[in-house]
Design brief:
With 705 residues, the protein is of the alpha+beta class. Helices cover 29% and strands 18% of the residues. 29% of the residues are buried.
Length: 705
């Protein structure tokens, strides 16, 4: 048994060593990808690149920002044209450009304001007002005031809701009964108005919406409930981004994502984006909606769309942008996260990487998006810091600098920043590849001599994965998860933002629930989506409990046996995890019995390794034996059973001519007379002695000891 444990430990150490080598190879391949992209962009020059290539060059390697700004059109450079060219502004292109400029700390306020100016009311949805009693089953007498923002007087409409929940009458031209008189349908002409409701008993109101020509209804996340004498206000909150007066779904996805990353409220866009998602599968809405809502249903849909063909793991959406772009988009919500699907795609990407490091035949968009989404690095530098603040001198751009030009620090006009007397330690923190923090106590690594602004110190994180935001004691996450203020001065991974308070997260234990694995189900209770769930898990609320799936509950199907006695045999223990018929108990093999059976898999692995080694050592001999076996089978005399003809492709066999030299397979054995010029007789290959095999087995046993 000790030998088995040693072998297991030996194999475990080998696996750790191989994982370390794989990680080192990954780092090297990623660096090659960044170098390849820098070379491709440098050879083509930023000025000659199309707009989208400039965008993803900025997102990945921080290059081409000035050229992208120069591509903006309209007065003041408010927006960008379509990716494939054009003279009018485009929502998707402008949103991507704003995201790129924000990633390198370039001010894009003007362009963000242009995006917000394109917001309009979506006419693609039907909206309904639901009113119901709360806590009772009696009838309601209600009134509703329809508030027009352009008017100072609001019409009032009275109506009754019966015990059967049905509404007795319409409430003006804006609210007409629908859905079998259970709801009010809101007229599209009244989407800009609010509805104040009051009833004689406690009641609740909410909004329901559906895509036109669809049978699916969506209930708003906001439900307003009040007691007697209270009132509620509901207003249609359905907006999109308009291109040419019509909602642009793909543009709305990108614009909403970008505004969310900038800390803007985006809840008013979610009804349109969620309801119309099934109508635009080519836009690949799942990664956007998972970032914007954090709902597990979008994560599940997203991960289920991963393709697995042999050893290739990627996303490729019908009507999408190709496997590299789609894979980068699919993994965008998981920047800085680790999950199996992401690791599988990373292995695939590293396996299909070009010889020089790029992907998709040195495609700038594909390579840039893959790097930004999966292996991002901070291209923002240390921000806009003045040259004098760092103790350097501003000189005219045409004058020579006796030291080093510090382009990352700003000067007025056309002047540049000059460090006149550099020394070996006169290097900025970002040039060292490190991070500036407030003080030494905020540095979890080693403080270096790199230059930082003000009284900040340069911190070497030692290769750790903590971001600048986390080092400063704050949290990185999506904007909608932050209940405090966003801190733009601290960097996070990718499009996540730094928040000065803990993120709003709900864990299963917080609601008294139990996490069920992907092989279990929640029996007798409701399930809830919480932030600590992994893929395939669910939070089971009381009084429910997690139970194994029905196919896994049988005792004998799980290598156990049913016993009618009060105790199990030696080496087995009773368990309630699996069931037996009648009153019998299930006995399964004890994990702590120390018996030989509990280590059978170690010995099986050991002998499997031996077989593989022997097969490798004697592969030539085995191949020869297989060839001989095939030759014997192909050389059998006589037709195949049940057939009158020889196998296809073989020449016909005729009765032997005994007047000639005998052939192999003749029915009558005869003494063979050697011809005058006999063929050279092939010497038989001597058999390998078993001594060599014994030597191999002996060495393997010594390793096991």
């Amino acid at each position: 048994m000790r030998k088995g444990a040693v072998i297991f430990a030996f194999l475990f150490l080998i696996s750790i060593f191989l994982m370390a080598l794989a990680y080192a190879d990954e780092i090297e391949q990623v660096e090659n990808a960044y170098q390849c992209l820098e070379n491709v962009v440098g050879n083509k020059t930023c000025a000659s690149l199309p707009i989208e290539e400039k965008i993803f060059s900025i997102l990945s390697i921080g290059e081409c920002k000035d050229e992208l700004i120069n591509d903006a059109i309209k007065d003041g450079g408010e927006c960008w044209p379509k990716l494939k060219g054009g003279s009018s502004c485009d929502i998707e292109t402008t949103a991507k450009a704003v995201l790129a400029l924000d990633s390198v700390d370039k001010n894009a306020t003007v362009q963000k304001e242009w995006l917000l100016s394109q917001v309009g009311v979506s006419s693609d949805l039907n909206w309904f007002l639901e009113i119901d009693n709360s806590g009772s089953s009696g009838a309601l007498s209600c009134s509703v005031w329809v508030k027009d923002p352009d008017s100072v007087s609001y019409p009032r409409y009275d109506f009754e809701i019966g015990e059967d929940k049905k509404i007795g009458s319409d409430a003006g031209p804006c609210l007409t009964r629908a859905n079998n008189n259970y709801w009010f349908k809101i007229s599209p002409e009244c989407y800009d108005r609010s509805f104040q409701t009051k009833c004689d008993e406690g009641f609740l109101t909410t909004l329901v919406y559906q895509e036109k020509n669809s049978q699916t209804y969506h209930i708003s996340d906001e439900v307003h409930s009040v007691g007697r004498g209270g009132d509620t206000i509901e207003k249609v909150n359905s907006y999109c981004f308009l291109n040419g007066g019509s909602c642009d779904y793909l543009g709305s996805l990108w614009a909403t994502l970008v505004l969310d990353s900038l800390g803007e409220p985006v809840s008013k866009f979610l009804p349109y984006l969620t309801a119309l998602a099934p109508s635009y599968p080519e836009a690949f809405p799942s990664p956007f909606l998972y970032i914007l809502t954090s709902k597990l249903e979008y994560k599940t849909t997203l991960l289920n769309n991963q393709k697995h063909i042999f050893d290739e793991y990627y996303w490729e959406i019908p009507g999408g942008r190709g496997k590299y772009y789609d894979t980068a988009l699919a993994l965008l919500p998981f920047q800085g996260d680790t999950l199996e699907e992401k690791e599988n795609s990373k292995s695939w990407l590293l396996g299909v990487q070009g010889a020089q490091g790029c992907w998709d035949n040195k495609n700038i968009v594909s390579t840039g998006f893959v790097l930004y989404s999966i292996w991002p690095r901070n291209n923002g530098g240390i921000g806009e810091i003045s040259c004098s603040e760092m103790g350097f001198s501003c000189i005219n751009s045409g004058d020579s600098c006796s030291g080093i030009l510090r382009e990352q620090f700003t000067c007025g006009g056309s002047q540049v920043c000059c460090d006149p007397v550099p020394d070996d330690e006169d290097v900025t923190c970002s040039e060292e590849g490190n991070t500036c923090v407030e003080d030494e106590n905020s540095c979890s690594g080693e403080v270096t001599g790199g230059l930082c602004a003000g009284n900040d110190v340069c911190c070497d994180l030692g290769g750790g994965e903590e971001t600048e935001c986390e080092i400063a004691g704050f949290s990185c996450g999506w904007s909608d998860e932050c209940t405090g203020s966003l801190l733009s001065q601290y960097e996070c991974t990718g499009i996540k933002k730094c928040c000065d308070t803990d993120l709003t997260q709900t864990f299963c234990s917080d609601v008294g629930g139990e996490i069920c694995s992907n092989t279990e189900f929640c029996s007798g209770g409701n399930v809830l989506e919480t932030d600590d769930l992994d893929y395939g898990e669910e939070c089971c609320l009381e009084p429910g409990e997690c139970k194994l799936e029905a196919t896994n509950l049988d005792c004998e199907s799980n290598l156990g046996y049913c016993s009618s006695s009060t105790s199990c045999d030696s080496g087995y223990e009773e368990t309630s995890e699996f069931s037996c018929s009648n009153s019998e108990v299930c006995c399964v093999q004890s994990q702590s019995s120390g018996g030989e059976g509990s280590y059978w898999w170690i010995w099986a692995l050991f002998f499997l390794v031996i077989l593989v080694v022997v097969a490798i050592l004697y592969r030539d001999k085995i191949k020869e034996m297989l060839d001989k076996m095939r030759a014997r089978r192909s050389g059998r005399s006589g037709p195949a059973p049940g057939r009158g003809m020889p196998p296809r492709g073989m020449p016909p066999r005729f009765p032997p001519d005994y007047s000639r030299e005998p052939r192999m397979g003749s029915p009558v054995p005869r003494k063979i007379v050697p011809p005058e010029n006999p063929r050279p007789i092939q010497k038989p290959i001597p058999k390998k002695s078993s001594k060599e095999i014994d030597e191999v087995l002996k060495k393997l046993k010594e390793i096991g000891k």
